[in-house]
Design brief:
The chain is mostly helical and 1375 residues long. Pfam families: ANAPC5, TPR_10, TPR_12, TPR_7.
């Protein structure tokens, strides 16, 4: 029995560890079950109760609540039966209550908590009382929707915690009181409690509580509309959660930030991003409750956006997960949401079904809140979908009754509003009026300004229907005043629409019908509203025409002039400049005769129409006339306005920013003299724009910052947004993309906060362009362009919609997603054709063509380019003609591999650029000509063009272009073998990229420098440092294409070092990412690299599989370049690993044929080299010499010094094999001299190797050979090239062996074996074991020799190397 007691204690301790520390509930249950069995064997009731209690706790944690209830009931029953300790009975009641609450038995849970509280109070256990008060508060707040009751419990909890000095419980009470006040919509009180919680958590240095408090404070500020403070606290909470790896904390913040963007900022797209992050974490953590909340929020937001089908999918997921987890309360809410979405989709039978289910479930358990919501939505269905307002009223009254019963003022106000709308539909305006008044009263008392505006507008509309226009106007003006104060753009538009309808209604009153003068004034007011506020120009035109008719009927010249002036304005806005000009001229003629004081205004209007119609010279004359009149009459305000208009004319239409600058300075001086802050701010803005056009970006920034400072002081949010955009533009021009992003983002946030969708659209476009053009992150750009598109559609802005399609196409093009690009570009073309904008049609044809070009459909590409070029020539649009020939040149250079033809087009573009004085296009033409010459391997000509490109880029001050130019010049110097200058230009580019924060260019620079170190300087270790830097940047920018490129480059560098296993790891990452992205081109490259690395590892079956996969994909996609390289690599495998040179030659000949077909001279030379090496291997030295001499001739024509060094070395080596040692030495000496000139260490290494071989094999002087091999070894070590280092050990071993120095030879062969094992090169391992075996044989150590032969044979059999098996068998036979 004593042992059982010990077992009981140990089972308990182990179970507790599994439950509380290791979070393994199943193991904990197992040990607690063992506890129970021990307690039953001991017949000890107390121990049994303890075991049941532990089982209950664990079952609750495992979600098995019914089982938990059973165990907790057993524990409580035992304690009662044996008259257990009061403290144990209290805990048992608490545990049972918790299980009952979790299983949905809320009433029983409440009873047990109350019983626990009674026991705790009876025994004076205040610690337990604190805990129970908290739990009772949570029960009433979370499950019973009674926050007021819960607040009472939390207040009791707080008092006891303070009495006992329990800081952690006091802190928890503050948290709970804040949450209760939130539920009561007492947001000021909630903020106060949450700030107390925050202060205490900071004092206690409790990071988790600190994060929770920041989230709650942020949420309170959100509800109060203080969004800057809310954002600050949310960001702090998120940062803390990320730093500590608290994913639950991150999830909560994402949820709250989503709510803020949905409810306060009215930015549904941003909200969706946060809700999706919340959902992803919920799934990752397996938290079904939070997952359901995310589905709920996504459903609601898509519903708000009018995307009901999408909303329905999310709502169904919410319902499904709630049915799965058994949460009845959330099931009811989900049924309501699904029903509402079906209602909006017009599927009313399904809507009714879900509403009825929700209502039935709510009634069954007395959930009044859910019943209230269902009645509301059924009322909406009857009013909006079924057009039965009488029935709707019945449901709204039920909704109202429950809202009153629950003392829910928000819902009560909502009910009055809906009742007002329903009565209004029935023509019962007096009744509706009373309902709206009650709605207004509630909203004024709870401080909800948004709904207060709605109530005032509804009252205004109702008074209008009752023909009480004074009260209607009064309410609408009050509503407008509040909407302007709160910068609620959407509400303002609605109010202006109501005002318009009120004035129309006035036109139909008997008093106005017979009064032309009143009609004139109303027509003017309605027209002005349509023109300036509602932006409905056709309606404005109609009312201004009515104005004119009234004025003519009245024979009133003043009124006629006013009508003509208004008509002129509207025709200008409609783009009918000649008609506008006619009307303004008529107004001017009347003003000159009748009303001299309005002559200035008439001149201005006339000038504006002329400017709009392109008659810039005449416009300038009329502006000057207007200015003269203004100066004559001393009208300073008019003078300021005219200086501004004249500045705009010179800046935007005459391309004379210097003259514009002078006019803006005059405007600024007048504004300052007369203390006109508005005009002064406008002058600063215009001066900034003029300086931008003059490319004086520092001055532009200074002017814009002055404007920003003044706008902030004036508190004009809309104008502050505009200036933030201007400041962002200027920082972008200065290359400071961090600050540019900051200002654009600030403007975007302000636009979202104020509901200014037009400004939001502008900001989205700016940020998208910045990400695409400067930050090279098209994925991010697309998110902003889609936001821009959605807003353009929502606002009915066709021009912006068209531009959105264009931008989306460009971004997809940048990502290489050409199918998606084609879809967007075709929409852009279609809309441009519909708009009749020939310039845009030309641009759209060019975009479509560029995409077809990338898709390999050159017939369609040529067709679109030809159409674009023809249209440009027909319309004498030389700018677009220039763009067309440039792009056609690109197609010939990039896709059709005809750089000679490309140069002809680029020269045409250059000539047009010079003719038009277009420096930017001239610069780009130089760049393109350089690229074409580079493709032709005419590096000297390439360098000439690129240096012009670099010089012009520096003169233009375009840092991005200067960086690109330096990289291009560096690449050309690299090809010319001038690595010092190449390095200099690359380093300059890299330094500039880092200074300007241009991380994309920084990636390109580091990759290029890495490539040079790997390919030309043969310093893979240095290359790796650059590649790792590029990889880190690519991951930071989420640039998957560059990340793949970095994986590939790292693999190649490790491969060059002989670190094949590491190389394979990088190539596998490259392959996986390319497969994830479905990038066939990258997949081919990755398979090639893996094939090549596997061949060096001796895994020839895997190598062959990868090569075959790559070749098959390249053939399917028609990628001849890739096919060419695969043939080369398969040839290398047959030559070096499979030792089947005849098969290798077949592959090399295919490689050569494709090189010639593609006119790739460099690859053709490499093919000659490979064929020479293979014939050397076959001892066909004469044939080998012919191939190497062809290689030499091509390299000499090309002028690439590094390749020339290697080719001289190979020719020399072949001469040595032929026994023609003088010719061999001549070529070796030439190669050595060139090495001294260029510092090309890899070339010297090859010369040392071949010279060593000649002395050892032909001159039979191994001692001299050793000197060359040692030089070879030193260089291999310096360059950290382990493959060549291993080869040097092998050669040194051979030389010492041939001198009879077997021990020294053995030492070198053992080093050779060690390095081949480290590199994983099994072919070299076989050779090393063979040489070691021969060394041991020579020393008479035959057992050791046999052992190495056996190891070599095992590897040869494992890798299927038949040739190696044969020669090892010969060595064994000799033993």
């Amino acid at each position: 029995m004593k042992d059982k007691a010990q077992q009981f204690d140990l089972y308990c301790q182990i179970g507790d560890l599994y439950r509380t520390k290791l979070h393994n509930l199943q193991s904990a249950l197992q040990y607690y079950q063992n506890m129970l069995e021990c307690s039953q064997a001991l017949s000890e009731d107390t121990k049994q109760a303890k075991a049941y209690n532990r089982l209950g706790l664990t079952c609750d944690m495992a979600g098995e609540h019914q089982e938990a209830c059973y165990n907790n009931e057993r524990a409580l029953a035992i304690y009662r039966d044996i008259g257990g300790k009061e403290s144990d009975i209290c805990v048992a009641h608490k545990s049972l209550a918790s299980s009952l609450a979790l299983s949905g038995q809320v009433s029983d849970a409440k009873t047990n908590y109350e019983s626990a509280l009674a026991v705790a109070m009876k025994t004076g256990n205040k610690t337990e009382q604190i805990d129970i008060y908290c739990k009772l508060g949570d029960l009433h707040r979370v499950l019973l929707d009674k926050p007021k009751v819960s607040k009472k419990y939390y207040t009791e909890m707080l008092e006891l915690a303070r009495e006992l000095g329990r800081k952690e419980k006091e802190r928890l009470a503050c948290n709970r009181l804040g949450l209760a006040c939130e539920d009561m919509q007492d947001n000021e009180a909630a903020l106060d409690w949450h700030q107390k919680h925050l202060k205490m958590s900071q004092e206690d240095d409790d990071t988790n509580e600190h994060r929770i408090a920041h989230t709650n404070v942020g949420n309170a500020y959100r509800r109060l509309g203080k969004l800057d403070q809310a954002t600050s606290h949310f960001n702090t909470a998120l940062q803390m959660a990320q730093q500590t790896g608290d994913q639950h904390g991150q999830m909560k913040v994402y949820y709250c930030m989503g709510d803020m963007h949905k409810e306060q900022l009215h930015s549904p797209r941003t909200a969706i991003q946060y809700y999706e992050q919340h959902l992803a974490l919920a799934k990752q953590l397996g938290d079904t409750n939070e997952e359901g909340l995310a589905y709920n929020r996504l459903g609601r937001i898509y519903c708000d956006m009018g995307k009901y089908e999408v909303a329905l999918e999310w709502d169904k997921k919410d319902l499904k997960i709630r049915q799965y987890d058994g949460d009845k309360k959330k099931q009811r809410a989900a049924h309501t949401n699904v029903g509402n979405t079906y209602r909006l989709l017009g599927k009313l039978d399904r809507a009714r079904s879900h509403f009825n289910t929700a209502l039935l479930m709510a009634k069954q358990i007395g959930d009044l809140h859910e019943q209230m919501k269902v009645y509301f939505w059924i009322g909406e269905m009857h009013r909006k979908q079924l057009d039965t307002p009488r029935t709707a009223i019945q449901y709204y009254e039920k909704h109202l009754a429950l809202a009153r019963q629950l003392t829910d003022k928000h819902e009560e106000g909502l009910a009055y509003n809906k009742l007002g709308l329903a009565h209004s539909m029935m023509g019962e305006h007096e009744v509706a009026l009373e309902r709206f008044k009650k709605y207004l009263k509630i909203r004024q008392s709870d401080g909800d300004t948004r709904d207060e505006i709605t109530a005032l507008t509804s009252l205004g509309d109702t008074y209008c229907k009752l023909r009480n226009f004074d009260k209607a106007a009064s309410h609408l003006k009050t509503a407008l005043h509040i909407a302007q104060q709160t910068e609620d753009q959407q509400a303002q538009i609605k109010i202006y629409s109501s005002m318009c309808e009120m004035q129309k209604e006035q036109l139909n009153t008997p008093a106005v019908i017979g009064d032309k003068s009143q009609q004139f004034d109303l027509y003017c007011q309605i027209g002005d509203l349509y023109r300036t506020k509602l932006h409905n120009l056709q309606s404005a035109l109609q009312y201004y025409q009515n104005m004119l008719e009234c004025s003519q009927a009245l024979s009133d010249d003043t009124k006629q002039a006013k009508a003509y002036s208004r008509l002129g304005m509207i025709y200008d806005m409609l783009g009918k400049q000649w008609t506008a000009f006619t009307h303004h001229k008529r107004a001017l003629s009347i003003h000159k005769v009748r009303i001299h004081t309005d002559v200035c205004e008439a001149y201005k209007n006339l000038a504006s129409s002329l400017a709009e119609s392109g008659q810039v010279s005449d416009a300038k004359t009329y502006y000057e006339s207007a200015l003269a009149v203004a100066m004559e009459t001393g009208k300073k305000t008019e003078q300021m306005n005219i200086y501004c208009l004249m500045g705009d004319l010179h800046r935007t239409q005459l391309d004379e920013p210097q003259i514009a600058h002078i006019h803006y300075i005059e405007m600024k001086a007048l504004a300052r003299d007369f203390g006109r802050k508005e005009e002064e701010m406008l002058a600063y803005n215009r001066l900034g724009l003029a300086c931008e056009d003059m490319q004086d970006y520092e001055a532009a920034l200074e002017w814009h910052q002055k404007a920003l400072k003044m706008r902030k002081e004036a508190g004009d949010t809309k104008e502050v947004m505009v200036v933030h955009i201007c400041v962002g533009d200027t920082y972008k021009d200065l290359g400071n993309f961090v600050k540019a992003t900051s200002h654009f983002s600030t403007a975007l946030q302000m636009a979202q906060q104020t509901g200014d969708q037009s400004s939001e659209m502008t900001c989205a476009l700016r940020i998208g362009d910045l990400h695409r053009e400067q930050l090279n992150s098209p994925h991010t750009a697309i998110q902003y362009y889609k936001q821009y598109l959605a807003l353009a559609k929502q606002l009915g802005r066709k021009e912006e919609e068209r531009q959105a399609y264009n931008r989306l196409g460009l971004a997809c093009y940048d990502m290489g997603d050409y199918e998606a690009d084609l879809g967007w570009s075709q929409k852009y073309l279609k809309m441009s054709q519909e708009a009749g904008d020939k310039g845009e049609v030309i641009d759209a044809h060019m975009s479509v063509c560029a995409t077809y070009q990338e898709l390999g459909n050159f017939d369609k590409a040529t067709s679109h380019y030809s159409t674009a070029l023809q249209m440009a020539q027909q319309t004498e649009n030389q700018d677009r003609e220039m763009a067309c020939v440039m792009v056609i040149g690109d197609m010939h250079r990039k896709q059709l591999n005809s750089p000679h033809t490309a140069i002809q087009y680029y020269e045409q573009a250059l000539a047009l650029a010079k003719q038009l004085g277009r420096k930017e296009e001239e610069r780009q033409a130089y760049n393109r000509l350089g690229l074409a010459c580079y493709n032709m391997q005419d590096y000297e000509a390439d360098l000439g063009w690129l240096q012009k490109y670099l010089k012009m880029s520096q003169e233009a001050g375009d840092k991005g272009e200067v960086i690109g130019a330096h990289m291009s010049v560096g690449a050309t110097y690299k090809e010319l073998g001038n690595f010092v200058k190449a390095t200099s230009h690359y380093n300059t580019a890299l330094q500039m990229a880092q200074q300007t924060g241009d991380k994309s260019s920084e990636i390109k620079c580091t990759l290029r420098i890495g490539d040079m170190h790997r390919e030309q300087l043969h310093s893979p270790q240095t290359a790796i440092q650059y590649y790792e830097q590029a990889l880190a940047l690519a991951r930071q920018l989420k640039d998957r294409h560059k990340e793949m490129e970095a994986y590939n480059s790292l693999g190649r560098a490790h491969h060059d070092m002989g670190e094949y296993k590491k190389a394979l790891e990088w190539f596998q990452k490259h392959l996986k990412m390319s497969q994830d992205d479905e990038d066939e081109g990258e997949q081919i490259t990755a398979h090639r690299r893996m094939g090549n690395t596997n061949r060096f590892l001796g895994q020839l079956d895997e190598a062959t599989s990868h090569f075959n996969t790559a070749l098959q994909m390249a053939q399917q996609t028609g990628d001849q370049d890739q096919q060419m390289y695969i043939h080369c690599e398969m040839g290398d495998m047959h030559l070096q690993q499979l030792h089947t040179p005849h098969t290798a030659i077949q592959y090399y000949e295919q490689y050569l044929a494709l090189a010639k077909q593609l006119k790739n001279k460099h690859v053709e030379a490499v093919a000659y080299n490979r064929l020479g090496l293979t014939h050397n291997k076959m001892a066909k030295y004469e044939a080998a010499l012919e191939w190497h001499q062809k290689d030499l001739k091509m390299i000499q024509d090309d002028g690439n010094n590094t390749d020339l060094i290697l080719t001289h070395a190979h020719v020399g080596h072949t001469y040595s094999l032929l026994g023609k040692l003088d010719q061999a030495k001549s070529h070796f000496n030439t190669a050595s001299q060139m090495v001294q000139q260029t510092g090309y260490r890899y070339g010297q290494m090859r010369v040392d190797l071949f010279m060593g071989d000649m002395h050892r094999e032909q001159l039979h002087s191994p001692r001299k050979a050793i000197q060359y091999y040692e030089q070879y070894l030193v260089l291999a070590r310096q360059m950290m090239n382990r493959r060549q280092e291993g080869r040097a050990y092998k050669k040194l071993g051979k030389a010492h062996y041939e001198m009879g120095e077997y021990k020294a030879g053995l030492e070198w062969f053992e080093k050779y074996l060690k390095i081949s094992q480290e590199c994983g090169d099994k072919t070299e391992q076989i050779t090393a074991h063979k040489h070691i075996a021969e060394s041991y044989k020579a020393q008479g150590k035959l057992d050791l020799a046999r052992s190495h032969c056996q190891t070599a044979m095992d590897i040869a059999m494992e890798t299927g190397n038949k040739q190696a098996q044969n020669y090892i068998a010969e060595v064994v036979a000799g033993l």
